[in-house]
Specification:
Length: 177
Amino acid sequence: MSLAIQGLSRWAIPMLLLGITTLGLSKRVSIYESFVEGAQEGWRSAVRILPYLVGMLVAIQVFEQSGALGQLINFLSPVTQWLGFPREVLPLALMRPISGSGSLAILSQILDTFGPDSFIGRLASTVMGSSETTLYVLTVYAGSVGLKRTRHTLATSLLADGAGALGALYIVLRYFG
């Protein structure tokens, strides 16, 4: 079974590309010109969202380097401890909506310190899988279509990330607690 899956995964993309090319040729589509046109549109989209990405990355660095993240953790710790959410996982839960690479570094540090089979390691892994890099996704999607008003979308997305963290706590307590 494992060999079949490896063989399928090895040939999936080449077969997909061959299938698309064959379909395009059968419909007499100019394949190369269509590819170039799509690449040009992709480049225009990348240039259009670049200022939003730079602004988001600067804001993330200011949030981390200013000590605001540490102060937010200290502020939220009493509530999260009451819920049973360990303080050690709180930086991950707060960083995950902001930065994928930052949250991955925090997860790696948690797993190195506590181990992947500990309660904290399992909770951190589940939080990582049950939340999204909300600000990055919102920046890319809103920037690519020129959306300016994202206040309600941001609030809803951050609420969903909080629900994901609480859901992760429930699941880990229920199945591994």
